Amino acid sequence: MQRNTYVSAAAAVVLALGGPVAAAATASAVTPTALTAATAARVDVTAEAAAAAALKAYPGVIESLDRDGAVWHVDVVSKDGTHSELEVDAASGSVTKENQDDDQQADEYAALLAAKVTAEQAMKTAVAAHPGKVWSVEWDDGDNGRAAVWNVEVKTTDGKTQNLHVDTATAEVVHSETDDNDDDGNN
């Protein structure tokens, strides 16, 4: 405690006498501690948090969400049928709009807008069935006579990728398969 007081007092004297150059030197001397605290405070934004951030910035219904490196790509359809392509920073959770359709196409998105089960609910169902982290969720409108489903990809706690189809009316998993990328140590 006393050491911190001395360091703080010394830094104040150096700043008062040395100006900006001393401030930069003092900051660089403190940086390792500051970086450690900043790194410890930084938490990777989950799919669920990315979805919440996107919907807060652009209200509507999520059509798809997927992780690509340091960003989440999120497609949101508003109640009037306007489609927006967003990016959510995976470190900070900040949302930026990449593209937005100028025409409203509510009829094209009618099934998505009317679905009883949202992307957020489908993610919860998938993680409940296979614990891990959601990596993507995508609306599949069920063309070719199939029923509409949410396609959810989960990186499970055992290191595998689980691909699930979640029913858009009941939130039940209707199909699940494991994509085992293990190569048994062979390169």
Counting H and I runs of at least 4 residues, what is the number of helices? 4
Overall pLDDT: 79
Which consecutive residue ranges, at least 5 long each, have pLDDT under 50?
A: 1-42, 182-187
Helix content: 25-40%
How far apart the termini lie comes to 53 Å
Largest sheet: 8 strands, antiparallel
User: Could you give the count of β-strands?
Assistant: 8
Given helix and strand content, the structural type is alpha+beta
Listing every helix as H and every strand as E from the N terminus to the C terminus, the arrangement reads: HHEEEEHHEEEE
Q: Name the beta content range.
A: 25-35%
Query: Globular, elongated, flat, extended or rod-shaped: what is the shape?
Result: globular
Q: Could you tell me the radius of gyration in angstroms?
A: 23 Å
Order of the strands making up the biggest sheet: 4-3-2-1-5-6-7-8
